Amino acid sequence: MKLLRSPAPALLLLGLISRAWAISVRNSRSSPVTVAAADTTHSGNSTGGNTTAENGGHGAAAITTLPIVTWKWHHVELPYLITLWVLVCWLVKLVLHLYKRLTIEIPESAMLILFGFILGGMIWGADKAQTFALQPRTFFFFLLPQIILDAGYFMPNKLFFSNMGAILIFAIIGTVWNAVAVGLSLYGVYLGGAMGNLDIDILQFMLFGSLLSAVDPVAVLAVFEEVHVNEVLFILVFGESLLNDGVTVVLYNVCDAFVSLGADKINAAEIIKGIVSFLVVAFGGSLIGVVFAILLSLLTRCTKNLQIIEPGFIFVVSYLSYLTAEMLSLSSILAITFCGVCCQKYVNANMAESSVTTVKYAMKVLANGSETIIFVFLGISAIDPNIWVWNTGFILLTVLFVLVYRIIGVFVLTWMLNRYRLIPIEIIDQVIMSYGGLRGGVAYGLAVLLDQAKIKEKNLMLCTTLIVVYFTVILQGVTMKPLVTWLKVKRSSKSELCLIEKLQNRAFDHILVAIEDISGQIGHNYMREKWNKFEERFIRPLLMKTSARKSQDQLFNVFHQLNLKDAISYVAEGERCGSLDFARSDNDANLVFKKKFGADLSDIIPDINSDLSDKDPYDIPLPSRENSLPSVCLDVEEEMRRKEVGDNNAHHLLQTHLYKARKQHRHRYSRKETGVNKDENEVQEIFQRTMRSRLESFKSTKMGVSQNKKLKPSKKDQVHKVCLLLPTANAYFESSYPSEASAGSASGGTILMRLSFRGIENPAFMPDAPPQTPPWSSSAQAEYGVAPSQMAQLRIPWSPGNLHRLAPLRISTRSNDSFLLADRPTTEEEQQPPNQPCGMKK
Amino acid sequence: MIMFFSSPSDVKNNGHRRFFPYCHIILIPRGVSGHESGGITTFFARRFHHVTDHSCAIIMGSGDSTLSKIPNVEELMEETGFSPAHVVRLYERFQALDKSKKGQLSRKDFESIKELATNPIRDRIIGAFFAQGQEMVDFHTFVRILAHFRPVDKNRPKKANMQEPVNSRTSKLRFAFQLYDQDNDGKISRNELLQVLRTMLEMQVTDEQLESIADRTIQEADLDGDNAISFDEFRKSLEKVNIDHKMSIRFLR
């Protein structure tokens, strides 16, 4: 029995399925499997004994006795191997990243290819043949789309469109130039006799030239992201490589058709047809992408109630755009690129924030994952003596031409472009651009696609392509970083999110437009302004949710993000210290927090108002009306702190305990609900306490509930026990809304109790209380009592989903409510704690 | 009317390389003359960047005479770095804006530019053209203000005795700064910032939000803690922004 080729490297690496060697050996010739998912015919090769497996593993073969377990390798072979390979590739990446220094010196893509060599060597050592190769079908259908989509979806749009002209020039003219120049030069040299005797005609040279003209976004991104060049350079190289892929494929198809047609049938009409087809395919593909982007945006307008699979739509629809374009023989790469580029704005505005995050990460996982696989397999594919046909002249000249014509193309085109650009592309940038012409998976995929029947020297072309890929990705990739440093290329400055910069950029835009208007020019800014106006008036209402449109101001979004960042660091800081105590002493944090609070509140307020105004204007106290509130709340406690040192430890203990106990309830499984459990949000939790403590202490001082004092020791004791009980209580109550509210009030009661005595214990608190009567303590309570607040509790989800991070307000209002709710029993009968657990305990 | 002109090689071209260095033929429809033809030729001049200063002046037909109408034009060009073609073009624009034909622009003239109507900070920008207490803008001031937006040209030799060029980074920033600083006290106060914010953010944002944005902005830039942004602080906070790119207009090159 020969050994199965397939899992060899996986085995060596993982030590898994070792027994599969012995058993599943038979279809030795047959495992194109793995990543080459296409070939399903292999099952036919299997011997009779395996038919069980092919039939789905159930039944068909006659059995004599009931097997307890059976070995069904063939049943799972294909998916198993695919998964295993994915795992192996990712493990390779993992291993690479164990050595930080290695990845700093050498770009990851190059390392992955090198690892691919090793893996390929292992396979070859085990099988004496290369059984795994990257199949073009797999590459183009399952690995490439997500990478391109990722690139399009996260494209910095403004940068992209403001450099669109240059990008298009490079992508179209540059690519055609590369293809034609390389093809013709090779043909010329071939006629000159430098390559010996080859069976290639001029059309095939052109075909070869066109497939080599693809500057690969995968390779380029992998290298350029690591060296952090300045953004204009980055977008030029990246945008070019992205669009030029599409152009290359189109060019390749046209050339391929010419080759099939044969040199003698080609006349002027055919050439014109070729050019027309080139344009139609390229622009048609882009159009398909735009159409699908519109569909996608429209779709996300109405997925509000189905947030759980909302992110899925992005992937499905954009993949569909890819397939549709492929079906119509238009450029699928351009389709999915433009789908991503055009939909991002609307989709991100329409979807809930959590979905946006999900899409972001899922897309990164997919893109990064398949990028890894591609590079590893580019390496593995090399270890196959069958494809290696060496022709020194052909190979070396190809490498040379590819390099030289890239440089010439870039310099000539930039020279032309620079005459029209506001910011000329500098010489150094041009050097990097020409040096960054990395070839990658697309070129290889196209080379594999060549038809052996038509092109006799396919293998020579294939291995030349591989050499070019290795040369560019490994050699140029490795030297890129030193080159960038050596030439002192402007790097991108890692700018922190900064409000004043954004504000000023906005101002600059307005200024430039105005100046263009005044000086009577029709320039970029004027056009952009016109487009913006048009977009705002016609496109946005169509593609964007009404609610999302309101919060579209970019400047405000920046502000919002800054606030989120603050909130997160605030909470992190608070957790590190065990509580939010630090806020009391740290004035800076206080200030920031105050700002954050104020803004977030006012952010939500319109929603509240619109939601509840018909019910009761006073129902929800609007703490934002007094910006002083949160800071007062925290400052006041600074006073308390001094007096409370003894108790603080106990509080810390309590707070930590309460919190952790509740945390455990996150394990509930639900397919529909994601982790955003509003009741247990950390920010909310902590904030809830702060608010309650503040309100309660304020209340108690106001009411003079000094009689609590005598209960102090026993209560303190009680609180401890209550918090231990709390989880149980919560578990009972958490299932539905009303009961959730009551659970909230129960826990609120607990905290409230604790805090009430804390407030009382510190009479120093009193003078610090805000002199003006807060609207919620007197008016809301006196006039409206408990009823409206219960109403409010039932209406918790009034704030839009994408604002769920802005928890404090919701909590603060709710905590008020539960405070009021809980208030009644406490004031009426202080002895009886309002919450069940305590009662039960007694 | 056919205009045929060539650009003699002795003409110094300010950094413009000529694409087709020898001759240009531009067809201008019959019946267009005078001022209009000036507009059309300017349009062509704009389209074809290779049209050099001198040849542009020739297109204008009356180019030299246009230039000669402007007093101290040499000085102006020296100071602002504009080429004769630019000056001629701006002069035409100036005249087109100058409804009253007094050789000066009033606020009304600016306000009548209809594209400008939708610009949220229109008043500020118009205000920037008017020096303190002045009601009118003459052509020289007009050009000087616009010169802020000329891209920085590296090829231009720096003369030692010249003061800082009007399109330097600092003066570009100064221009932007003065849009905020309405009372000219050298500081952007919270109120001044709020006013600008209010116009730029339109009505989607509440007052509270505006205030907290303003606070935050000041907090970011404010180094000395006086709750206002001085010019130095302004410059420091925008250190990372490439002002040369952001405050330049290609057409005025």
UniProtKB/TrEMBL annotation, chain A:
Q: What does this protein do?
A: Plasma membrane Na(+)/H(+) antiporter. Exchanges intracellular H(+) ions for extracellular Na(+) in 1:1 stoichiometry, playing a key role in salt and fluid absorption and pH homeostasis. Major apical Na(+)/H(+) exchanger in kidney and intestine playing an important role in renal and intestine Na(+) absorption and blood pressure regulation.
Source superkingdom: Eukaryota
The name this protein goes by in its record: Sodium/hydrogen exchanger
A GO-annotated cellular component: recycling endosome membrane
Biological-process GO terms, alphabetical:
regulation of intracellular pH; sodium ion import across plasma membrane
Source organism (scientific name): Scleropages formosus
Alphabetically sorted, this entry's keywords are: Antiport, Cell membrane, Endosome, Ion transport, Membrane, Phosphoprotein, Signal, Sodium, Sodium transport, Transmembrane, Transmembrane helix, Transport
> InterPro entries, per this entry?
Cation/H_exchanger_CPA1 (IPR018422), Cation/H_exchanger_TM (IPR006153), Na/H_exchanger_3/5 (IPR018410), NaH_exchanger (IPR004709)
Q: In which compartments does the protein localize?
A: Apical cell membrane; Early endosome membrane; Recycling endosome membrane
Signal peptide location? 1-22
Region annotation Disordered: where it falls in the sequence: 817-842
Query: Which family is this protein grouped under?
Result: Belongs to the monovalent cation:proton antiporter 1 (CPA1) transporter (TC 2.A.36) family.
Major location category of this protein: membrane
Please give, as recorded in its UniProt entry, the membrane topology of this protein: Multi-pass membrane protein
Q: Name one Pfam family in it.
A: Na_H_Exchanger
Q: Which GO terms describe its molecular function?
A: potassium:proton antiporter activity; sodium:proton antiporter activity
Report the residue ranges that make up the Cation/H+ exchanger transmembrane domain in this protein.
93-486
Automatic annotation (TrEMBL), chain B:
Q: Which GO terms describe its molecular function?
A: calcium ion binding
Protein name per Swiss-Prot or TrEMBL: Calcineurin-like EF-hand protein 2
Q: What does the similarity note say?
A: Belongs to the calcineurin regulatory subunit family. CHP subfamily.
Which superkingdom heads the taxonomic lineage of this protein's source?
A: Eukaryota
Source organism per entry reads Scleropages formosus (Asian bonytongue)
* SUPFAM superfamilies referenced in this protein's UniProt entry, alphabetically: EF-hand
Tell me which PANTHER family the record gives: EG:114D9.1 PROTEIN-RELATED (PTHR46002)
One of the GO biological process terms: protein transport
Q: Which residues form the EF-hand domain?
A: 168-203, 209-244
SMART domains noted in UniProt = EFh
